[in-house]
Amino acid sequence: MSWDWNYGESPEFNIKQGNRFEGGKIEVLANIKDGIIRGIKFYGDFFGSGSLEEVESALIGKRHENEEIRSALVKLNIEEYFKNITIDDIVNCIL
User: Are 14 and 32 in contact (CB under 8 A)?
Assistant: First the structure.
């Protein structure tokens, strides 16, 4: 099985999930179509000083899979946006 088989032909769906971490709670709302992140928003009671729009923009157009999401996030200083929350934590919330 490949990504194309599993996700590339999948119908549009929305994700709403979240979790609580040391740095606070993150809730993710995402719109996925054909296995691609078409829209994503982060909500929660976490601390950070950066604009979440920068993180959201970095994820739009990426495949809804661990490696591609992680690759987009490592290019950002995640601590600036999500204090005391790791990239692994964020990836797990999105997937």
Answer: yes
**Cα–Cα nearest to 9, from 33, 38, 34, 37:** 34
31 near 38, Cβ under 8 Å?
A: yes
pTM given for the model = 0.83
d(Cα 90, Cα 86) in Å, to the nearest integer?
6
Beta bridge partners of residue 21, listed in sequence order: 24
Q: Return the axis-axis angle of helices 66-73 and 52-59, rounded to nearest 10°.
A: 140
Domain span including residue 21:
3-94
pLDDT value of residue 12 = 57
CATH classification of the domain holding 79: 3.30.390.50
Write down the pLDDT at residue 57: 96
Instruction: Collapse the DSSP code of 77 into the 3-class scheme (helix H, G, I; strand E, B; otherwise coil) and give the result.
Output: coil
Domain count, the chain: 1
